[in-house]
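Progress note, sequence design subtask.
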């Protein structure tokens, strides 16, 4: 927990002069998405409030917002915890991803497209592989798909998928072999990028549909086994 709190203290400057619950929830959501708080982690009001320099009421409101987004769960007389997803949650996350991400690619219009963010995410993933940092590769993978959604130029789509990707990170934490999970998809991200660079959004959509279907199958297979073995509380 000490390492995570040190990171939160670094985020304190992001609050500026307006320490609102929304900004606190943004920081915590990002930290969850980046993997600093694994599923089942109890979030201490005193420790996190002290790290961010915010009041207990502000932090509780941020917790409430993230509970509404299904990232946190409040357990009576125990506190607030990072949520442990069910298999059904994982399946619904991928269903939402397919609906939104494929629609974004389908609706891109005529090329050229602004693909700088996608290219940067692929480079980020390649660096992670070079350094054998599989957690960072998972983060780069999420960054790629977040940048893909951003091609739509829709704040609402970005906001919706920001929470979906944070939930997805919770599922990734249960997978016991992130190397095996994430590495094959770096090449597939690159293929999607190349199709879009060539202006072939139809091929990019096909690659994306196949990618998401294969990823769902792999994640659910591992997730079902691990959640069952660990007896995780998926409330």
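Output:
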């Amino acid at each position: 927990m000490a390492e995570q709190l040190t990171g939160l203290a670094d985020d304190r400057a992001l609050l500026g002069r307006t320490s609102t619950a929304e900004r606190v929830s943004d920081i915590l959501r990002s930290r969850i998405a980046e993997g600093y708080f694994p599923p089942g982690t109890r979030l201490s009001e005193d420790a996190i409030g002290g790290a961010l320099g915010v009041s207990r009421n502000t932090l509780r409101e941020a917790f409430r917002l993230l509970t509404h987004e299904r990232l946190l769960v409040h357990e009576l007389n125990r506190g607030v915890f990072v949520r442990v997803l069910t298999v059904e949650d994982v399946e619904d996350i991928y269903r939402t991803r397919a609906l939104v991400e494929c629609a974004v690619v389908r609706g891109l219009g005529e090329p050229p497209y602004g693909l700088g963010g996608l290219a940067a995410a692929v480079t980020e993933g390649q660096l992670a592989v070079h350094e054998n940092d599989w957690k960072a590769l998972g983060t780069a993978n999420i960054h790629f798909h977040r940048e893909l959604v951003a091609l739509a130029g829709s704040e609402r789509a970005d906001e919706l998928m920001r929470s979906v990707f944070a939930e997805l990170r919770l599922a990734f934490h249960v997978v016991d072999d992130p190397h095996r999970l994430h590495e094959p998809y770096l090449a597939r991200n690159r293929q999607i990028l190349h199709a879009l660079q060539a202006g072939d959004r139809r091929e990019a959509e096909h690659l994306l549909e196949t990618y998401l279907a294969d990823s769902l199958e792999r994640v659910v297979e591992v997730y079902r086994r691990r959640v069952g073995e660990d007896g995780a509380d998926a409330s």
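The mean pLDDT is 87. Work on this subtask will continue into the next period as scheduled.
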